Amino acid sequence: MYLKSLELSGFKSFAKKSSLSFTTPITGVVGPNGSGKSNIAEAFRFVLGEQSIKSLRGKRGEDMIWNGGGDGSVGTGTGRANRASVKLTFDNSRKLFTGIDFDEVNIERVVHRDNNNEYLLNGSQVRLKDVIEMLAGAHIGATGHQIISQGEADRILSASIRERREMIEDALGLKIFQWKKLESIRKLERTEENMERVASLRREIAPHLKFLKKQVEKVEKTEEMRLELVVLYKDYFTHEDIYIRTEKERMTREIFEPKKELAELDKELERAKKILTDSKNKDKKSDEVIVLEGKLAETRADKDTIGRELGRIEGEISANKRAIEKEESRLKNEESRTVYLRDVEEVLRTVESFGVIEDAKKLFGEVISVLKRFIASHRSNTGSALIGDMDQEVKKLSKERDSLESKLFSLSEIESKYVHGYAELKQMIEKEKDTNRDAEKDVFRIIARQNEVRNVVSNLDTALNSIVHDEEAFKRELGEAGIIAGREAVTFSEVGPHEDSASENARKLQADRRRQIEKIKIRLEDSGAIGGTEVINEYRETEERDTFLARELEDLEKAKKELLALIAELDVRIDIEFKTGILKINTEFQNFFSLMFGGGKAELSVVKEMRHRRKSDMEDLGEALRSDLPEDSVEEGPEGLEVNVSLPRKKVRGLMMLSGGERALTSIALLFAVSQVNPPPFIILDETDAALDEANSKKYGDMIESLSKHSQLILITHNRETMSRAGILYGVTMGSDGASKLLSIQFEDAVRVAK
Q1: Rounded-to-integer distance, Cα 212 and Cα 544, Å
Q2: pLDDT given for residue 381 in this prediction
Q3: How far is Cα 486 from Cα 233, in angstroms, rounded to an integer?
Q4: What is the distance between the alpha carbons of residues 650 and 682, in angstroms, rounded to a whole number?
């Protein structure tokens, strides 16, 4: 026996705490009408989780609570209660409830006057869902086959075929599978909603991810160009650094001796001039020599100054020409032309000057026209101002160069005249034999040598100035390379082929490297790859989110397939269990029916509900136009159960032809048959024997004893025969205060009372 006791406190008519112990297979509850004995059956429904207050003969939860004595007095034991509780105790030593390790399980439900309900499992508060799940696993429910009242006995016959199927499914213990199926369907719906939500999120970020991917590809291409530029820069800087250092060292060495010789010649010239100045034989020719030497020195100094200035101007002209070539190369790609901020601001001021234009179409037309003019203007002219400025600078420098070259030419002519004068004086002086002329010869010799040495020094100075300009350009390029290509571009090697760095082929290769560098720099500037790290990070974050959503969608799809498989599996199991159960029920139904009626046939058959299909508006219109359409359209509905009976020795077929007593016996036979197939732990029969005569009561009692071998029975009855089958009787009485009280009678006393 699984059921141990039932305890009521403040529930309906049981004002005081009352308890029933179930120590025998059959327990009877007797009492006069109105004593409250049916409240015991309702107490079972209540504690097992019944949510329909109407089925508990009430309108509100408050109706379940003892409301005090009939006259409204608040006497001892008759004052109204604030709560009602029902506690049901089970023996769980044989693990009726598989998920609970206690040998005894208490289920308690408490309702308060504010309609709040509490559910307690062994004293711990739980949810109604937890209680229902636990009971369903033990084939126990708040309604159904194990709690049958007098009015509900006939319900299985009067119900529709669909309702009858639900009753039988509940009795067969299929409720737990149906509940699992319902839970699976709900989970499937939530899963599909989540799938749609995740798919929507993926669709939402897809365009942005696609855009970021293109940006990343652009950044990656830019990075490839930057790395290519780094390699070129390293190679270029290595060769250029070696070339500049080598050439500077060579020229410094080569110019050292000429400058040293020139200094010594200056000293010798001073000594010779002093001899001429101090000579007693100084004459007019000596003065001419001194004057001519001074003019020649002054002229050559001017030439040196102009030569250095020409070198500077040539360097500036070369730099400007390179800048012009770079700007012209950049302007070949029209889509990447630079637009100056002042030009964009001018467009903004133009648009802002429109004022309020009521016609929006006209306003957009004006804006579009301004932008088209702006684009057309900069498509053809952007950069021309900068190139023009540089052209003007080149022209200005060229004029200065031409002017200096003209001056240099004039000075060269003057120098030639002075040199020619030197030559004439030299010839004249050589003809003279006095000693003073020896000094003059020295002067001419020294000046001639000075001219040779100065030419060498001048050429070396010019070359050295060119190297200095190259070095300055080299330093500027280093700074620009660090900005464009990064620090690694300027960490170049300082060793290489020194002997070939100044060769014509080496300089040609260096010029080719320079052109490649300029091309890549222009492409880098045109790419506009700014904020590459931020774009890559954002792309990675977005891609990771998309990957996460894809995995989540994949998991949801997998969960959906598993749920569909589970639902299909439950459908198959429910169908198999149902059909197998129907076969067993029909066997027991036939046995009980034959026992009740002394023969005959009775069975349950699976049929499909036929119902009228609602016509559409088009079908109604067709009926109005055509006369050959059927008046009613019938379609098949869900499957249900039909009860087929045939009484012996009577031409009675079908439930509609049965008398009241025959219907009662048939319903009892069917209910007992259902209980025999899948016996619940206990069954409560609330006056189901009320319509039986004495002969049938005996048969009913025999069936009860047979049924008690599989389930504990709690019988609420007036029938003496039924009472005699009980091991213990509980009598329910009601005092003047309207409160129900319990009295118990042992088996021997029960037999005597029953007889």
Answers
A1: 13
A2: 55
A3: 11
A4: 36
**Closest among 608, 576, 606 to 172, alpha carbons compared:** 576
- pLDDT tens track for 702-752: 888 888 888 899 999 988 888 989 999 999 998 888 899 998 876 666 566
Closest by CA to 238, choosing from 518, 499, 490, 517, is: 490
pLDDT at 64: 92
CA dist., res. 328 & res. 384, Å (int): 9
Handedness of CA 446, 450, 452, 456 (dihedral sign): positive
pLDDT band, very low/low/confident/very high, at 200 (cuts 50, 70, 90):
very high
**pLDDT at residue 749 in the model:** 61
CA distance 88 to 109: 9
- Please, are residues 671 and 148 in contact by the beta-carbon 8 Å criterion? yes
Mean pLDDT of 191-201: 93
Structure tokens of 230? 């780094």
What is the token pair recorded at 373? 């003019």
Residue type, 586: N
Structure tokens at 475: 């330093």
- pTM beyond cutoff 0.90: no
Percent of residues, the chain, with pLDDT higher than 70? 83
The pair of three-digit structure tokens given for residue 469, joined into one six-digit string: 């300009």
Q: Of 741, 745, 702, whose CA–CA distance to 725 is shortest?
A: 702
Q: What is the dihedral of CA 498, 500, 503, 505, to 10 degrees?
A: -140
HSE, CB side, 13 Å, CA atoms: give it for residue 623. Answer: 10
Cβ partners under 8 Å of residue 398, min gap 6: 317
Q: Is the pLDDT of residue 657 over 70?
A: yes
CB 351 within 8 A of CB 365: no
More confident: 483 or 121: 121
Burial class (CB in 10 A: 0-12, 13-18, 19+), 26: buried
Residue 110 is predicted with a pLDDT of: 96
DSSP state of 84: E
Return the domain boundaries, the chain: 1-145+718-755
CA separation for the pair 714, 686 (Å, rounded): 8
> How many whole angstroms separate alpha carbon 329 and alpha carbon 515?
11
End-to-end CA, the chain: 28
**Which residues neighbour 57 within 8 Å (Cβ) at sequence distance 6 or greater?**
42
Mutual angle of helices 532-597 and 161-171, in 10-degree steps: 100
Q: How large is the angle between the packed helices 384-431 and 284-331, nearest 10 degrees?
A: 160
CB 538, CB 216: distance < 8 Å? no
- Helices 175-278 and 532-597: crossing angle in degrees, nearest 10, is 180
Edge-to-edge strand ranges of the sheet holding 18-21: 18-21, 3-9, 83-91, 104-112, 117-121, 124-126
| H helix runs in 609-653, sequence order | 617-625
The average pLDDT across 312-331 equals 77
Q: Enter the CATH code of domain 1-145+718-755.
A: 3.40.50.300
DSSP three-state, residue 637: strand
Q: What is the helix (H) or strand (E) element at residue 111, kind and residue range? A: strand 104-112
Token couple for 143: 């309604």
CA angle 292, 298, 304 (to 5 degrees): 135
Question: For residue 666, what pLDDT is reported?
Answer: 86
513-569 pLDDT per residue, tens: 888 888 888 887 777 655 578 888 888 999 999 999 999 999 999 999 999 999 999
579-636 pLDDT tens trace: 899 999 999 889 888 888 888 899 999 888 776 666 566 666 666 666 554 555 666 6
* C-alpha span between 466 and 320 (Å, rounded): 16
